[in-house]
Amino acid sequence: MIALKNLGKFYPLGFGKSFVLKNINLEIKEGEFVSIMGPSGSGKSTLLHILGLMEEPSEGSYELLGQDINSLSEKKRNEINRSTLGFVFQAYHLIDELTVYENIETPLLYRDMASAERKSRVADILDRFQMVAKKDLFPSQLSGGQQQLVGIARALVTEPKIILADEPTGNLHSDQAKYIMEIFSELNKKDGVTIIQVTHSDINATYGNRIVKLKDGWIE
Predict the structure, then answer these.
(1) Is the pLDDT reported for residue 177 higher than 90?
(2) Distance between CA atoms of 205 and 50, rounded to whole angstroms?
(3) How many CA atoms lie within 13 A of 200 on its CB side?
(4) How many alpha carbons fall within 13 Å on the CB side of residue 81?
(5) Could you report the per-residue pLDDT of 42-59, keeping only the tens digit for each?
(6) Which residues of 93-122 are buried (b: 16+ CB within 10 A; e: fewer)?
(7) Which domains can be identified in the chain, with CATH numbers?
(8) How far is CA 35 from the centre of its chain?
(9) How confident is the model at residue 90, as a pLDDT?
(10) Any residues with CB less than 8 A from the CB of 119 and at least 6 apart, and which?
(11) Is the pLDDT of residue 144 over 90?
(12) Residue 85: left (phi > 0), alpha (psi -120 to 50), or beta?
Protein backbone atom coordinates (compact mmCIF):
# COMPACT_ATOMS: atom_id res chain seq x y z
CA MET A 1 0.00 0.00 0.00
CA ILE A 2 2.84 2.38 0.95
CA ALA A 3 6.49 2.06 -0.06
CA LEU A 4 9.21 4.57 0.81
CA LYS A 5 12.63 4.05 -0.76
CA ASN A 6 15.70 6.03 0.33
CA LEU A 7 13.43 8.89 1.25
CA GLY A 8 14.96 12.03 2.70
CA LYS A 9 13.91 15.52 3.72
CA PHE A 10 16.38 18.35 4.15
CA TYR A 11 16.53 22.13 4.29
CA PRO A 12 19.32 24.42 3.11
CA LEU A 13 21.78 25.36 5.87
CA GLY A 14 24.53 27.71 4.82
CA PHE A 15 26.37 25.94 2.00
CA GLY A 16 25.09 22.54 3.12
CA LYS A 17 21.94 20.69 4.09
CA SER A 18 20.18 20.04 7.37
CA PHE A 19 18.47 16.62 7.20
CA VAL A 20 15.21 16.01 9.04
CA LEU A 21 14.82 12.53 7.51
CA LYS A 22 17.52 10.40 5.91
CA ASN A 23 17.45 7.10 3.99
CA ILE A 24 13.95 6.10 5.09
CA ASN A 25 12.99 2.69 3.70
CA LEU A 26 9.58 1.57 4.84
CA GLU A 27 6.70 -0.55 3.59
CA ILE A 28 3.22 -0.48 5.10
CA LYS A 29 0.69 -3.06 4.01
CA GLU A 30 -3.05 -2.61 3.71
CA GLY A 31 -4.79 -3.22 7.03
CA GLU A 32 -1.75 -2.55 9.22
CA PHE A 33 -1.79 -0.37 12.34
CA VAL A 34 1.65 1.22 12.56
CA SER A 35 2.93 3.37 15.41
CA ILE A 36 5.77 5.80 14.66
CA MET A 37 7.77 6.65 17.79
CA GLY A 38 10.87 8.62 18.68
CA PRO A 39 12.08 11.59 20.72
CA SER A 40 11.17 15.18 19.84
CA GLY A 41 13.01 16.29 16.74
CA SER A 42 13.41 12.76 15.39
CA GLY A 43 11.35 13.51 12.26
CA LYS A 44 8.10 11.74 13.20
CA SER A 45 5.70 14.52 12.24
CA THR A 46 7.66 15.34 9.08
CA LEU A 47 7.37 11.72 7.99
CA LEU A 48 3.63 11.75 8.68
CA HIS A 49 3.23 14.98 6.73
CA ILE A 50 5.02 13.43 3.74
CA LEU A 51 2.81 10.34 3.95
CA GLY A 52 -0.20 12.68 4.07
CA LEU A 53 0.96 14.64 1.00
CA MET A 54 1.28 17.82 3.07
CA GLU A 55 5.03 17.98 2.42
CA GLU A 56 7.20 16.70 -0.39
CA PRO A 57 10.36 14.65 0.16
CA SER A 58 13.67 16.17 -0.92
CA GLU A 59 14.93 12.87 -2.27
CA GLY A 60 13.92 9.25 -2.70
CA SER A 61 10.55 7.85 -3.75
CA TYR A 62 7.10 7.49 -2.26
CA GLU A 63 4.63 5.01 -3.75
CA LEU A 64 1.02 5.05 -2.57
CA LEU A 65 -1.38 2.42 -3.89
CA GLY A 66 1.11 1.63 -6.65
CA GLN A 67 1.48 5.23 -7.82
CA ASP A 68 4.70 7.23 -7.70
CA ILE A 69 3.54 10.28 -5.78
CA ASN A 70 6.52 12.41 -6.83
CA SER A 71 5.55 12.15 -10.51
CA LEU A 72 1.92 13.21 -10.06
CA SER A 73 0.45 16.64 -10.73
CA GLU A 74 -0.80 18.71 -7.82
CA LYS A 75 -4.38 18.13 -8.98
CA LYS A 76 -3.92 14.35 -8.94
CA ARG A 77 -2.24 14.48 -5.53
CA ASN A 78 -5.19 16.45 -4.18
CA GLU A 79 -7.61 13.86 -5.60
CA ILE A 80 -5.70 11.04 -3.92
CA ASN A 81 -5.57 13.02 -0.70
CA ARG A 82 -9.35 13.51 -0.63
CA SER A 83 -10.25 9.97 -1.70
CA THR A 84 -7.67 7.95 0.23
CA LEU A 85 -6.48 9.77 3.35
CA GLY A 86 -8.11 10.87 6.59
CA PHE A 87 -6.34 13.03 9.17
CA VAL A 88 -6.67 13.23 12.95
CA PHE A 89 -4.64 15.91 14.75
CA GLN A 90 -3.65 16.50 18.35
CA ALA A 91 -5.04 20.05 18.18
CA TYR A 92 -8.34 18.83 16.64
CA HIS A 93 -8.36 21.57 13.93
CA LEU A 94 -12.12 21.96 14.12
CA ILE A 95 -13.68 25.11 12.66
CA ASP A 96 -14.96 27.15 15.61
CA GLU A 97 -17.72 28.86 13.65
CA LEU A 98 -19.24 25.58 12.44
CA THR A 99 -21.42 23.15 14.35
CA VAL A 100 -20.48 19.51 14.94
CA TYR A 101 -22.64 18.54 11.95
CA GLU A 102 -21.05 21.16 9.71
CA ASN A 103 -17.52 20.26 10.76
CA ILE A 104 -18.11 16.62 9.88
CA GLU A 105 -19.77 17.53 6.58
CA THR A 106 -16.96 19.88 5.46
CA PRO A 107 -14.69 17.36 3.67
CA LEU A 108 -17.66 16.05 1.70
CA LEU A 109 -18.33 19.52 0.29
CA TYR A 110 -15.13 19.22 -1.75
CA ARG A 111 -16.51 16.18 -3.55
CA ASP A 112 -19.01 15.90 -6.35
CA MET A 113 -21.58 14.35 -4.04
CA ALA A 114 -25.33 14.76 -3.93
CA SER A 115 -26.76 16.53 -0.91
CA ALA A 116 -28.80 13.45 0.06
CA GLU A 117 -25.70 11.27 0.20
CA ARG A 118 -23.82 13.87 2.26
CA LYS A 119 -26.67 14.01 4.75
CA SER A 120 -26.85 10.22 4.91
CA ARG A 121 -23.12 9.85 5.57
CA VAL A 122 -23.07 12.50 8.27
CA ALA A 123 -26.16 11.01 9.92
CA ASP A 124 -24.58 7.55 9.93
CA ILE A 125 -21.33 8.77 11.47
CA LEU A 126 -23.15 10.85 14.10
CA ASP A 127 -25.11 7.77 15.07
CA ARG A 128 -21.99 5.59 15.15
CA PHE A 129 -20.23 7.94 17.56
CA GLN A 130 -23.39 8.63 19.57
CA MET A 131 -23.20 12.35 18.82
CA VAL A 132 -26.67 12.96 17.35
CA ALA A 133 -27.65 15.04 20.40
CA LYS A 134 -24.54 17.21 19.95
CA LYS A 135 -24.82 17.83 16.22
CA ASP A 136 -25.90 21.48 16.64
CA LEU A 137 -23.27 22.38 19.24
CA PHE A 138 -20.09 24.32 18.49
CA PRO A 139 -16.58 23.05 19.34
CA SER A 140 -16.30 25.48 22.29
CA GLN A 141 -19.27 23.71 23.88
CA LEU A 142 -17.54 20.31 23.81
CA SER A 143 -14.93 18.67 26.03
CA GLY A 144 -11.51 17.81 24.62
CA GLY A 145 -12.49 14.17 24.20
CA GLN A 146 -15.70 15.11 22.41
CA GLN A 147 -13.81 17.46 20.08
CA GLN A 148 -11.39 14.66 19.20
CA LEU A 149 -14.35 12.37 18.47
CA VAL A 150 -15.65 14.99 16.03
CA GLY A 151 -12.18 15.10 14.46
CA ILE A 152 -12.20 11.33 14.01
CA ALA A 153 -15.76 11.39 12.65
CA ARG A 154 -14.73 14.08 10.16
CA ALA A 155 -11.78 11.91 9.06
CA LEU A 156 -13.99 8.85 8.63
CA VAL A 157 -16.93 10.42 6.81
CA THR A 158 -14.98 10.32 3.54
CA GLU A 159 -14.44 6.55 4.02
CA PRO A 160 -10.63 6.78 3.71
CA LYS A 161 -8.38 3.78 3.15
CA ILE A 162 -5.72 5.25 5.46
CA ILE A 163 -5.98 7.30 8.65
CA LEU A 164 -2.96 9.40 9.64
CA ALA A 165 -3.04 10.42 13.31
CA ASP A 166 -0.56 12.88 14.81
CA GLU A 167 -0.49 12.48 18.63
CA PRO A 168 -4.28 11.89 18.59
CA THR A 169 -4.60 11.69 22.39
CA GLY A 170 -1.93 14.22 23.33
CA ASN A 171 -4.40 16.70 24.85
CA LEU A 172 -6.67 14.14 26.55
CA HIS A 173 -6.72 12.58 30.00
CA SER A 174 -6.12 8.84 30.32
CA ASP A 175 -9.76 7.66 30.17
CA GLN A 176 -10.47 9.74 27.08
CA ALA A 177 -7.21 8.59 25.50
CA LYS A 178 -8.09 4.93 26.07
CA TYR A 179 -11.53 5.43 24.51
CA ILE A 180 -10.04 7.10 21.41
CA MET A 181 -7.43 4.37 20.98
CA GLU A 182 -10.07 1.66 21.28
CA ILE A 183 -12.00 3.37 18.47
CA PHE A 184 -8.87 3.29 16.30
CA SER A 185 -8.35 -0.38 17.13
CA GLU A 186 -11.94 -1.20 16.15
CA LEU A 187 -11.63 0.74 12.89
CA ASN A 188 -8.51 -1.21 12.07
CA LYS A 189 -9.70 -4.68 13.06
CA LYS A 190 -13.35 -4.54 12.01
CA ASP A 191 -13.33 -2.04 9.14
CA GLY A 192 -9.87 -2.85 7.80
CA VAL A 193 -8.73 0.79 7.84
CA THR A 194 -4.95 1.18 7.68
CA ILE A 195 -3.82 3.42 10.53
CA ILE A 196 -0.51 5.22 10.94
CA GLN A 197 -0.10 7.12 14.19
CA VAL A 198 2.69 9.27 15.57
CA THR A 199 2.85 8.92 19.34
CA HIS A 200 5.06 9.43 22.37
CA SER A 201 2.89 7.03 24.36
CA ASP A 202 4.10 3.47 24.90
CA ILE A 203 0.51 2.55 25.81
CA ASN A 204 -0.91 3.97 22.58
CA ALA A 205 1.80 2.23 20.56
CA THR A 206 0.69 -1.17 21.83
CA TYR A 207 -2.65 -0.79 20.05
CA GLY A 208 -0.78 -1.13 16.77
CA ASN A 209 0.72 -4.29 15.32
CA ARG A 210 4.08 -2.70 14.48
CA ILE A 211 6.29 0.04 15.90
CA VAL A 212 8.66 2.09 13.74
CA LYS A 213 11.26 3.94 15.80
CA LEU A 214 12.94 7.09 14.52
CA LYS A 215 16.07 8.70 15.93
CA ASP A 216 17.75 11.76 14.43
CA GLY A 217 15.87 11.26 11.17
CA TRP A 218 16.80 7.60 10.75
CA ILE A 219 14.82 4.42 11.30
CA GLU A 220 16.46 2.53 14.14
Answers:
(1) no
(2) 20
(3) 9
(4) 18
(5) 999 999 999 999 999 999
(6) ebeeeebbbbbbbebbeeeeeeeeebeebb
(7) 2-219 (3.40.50.300)
(8) 12
(9) 78
(10) none
(11) no
(12) beta
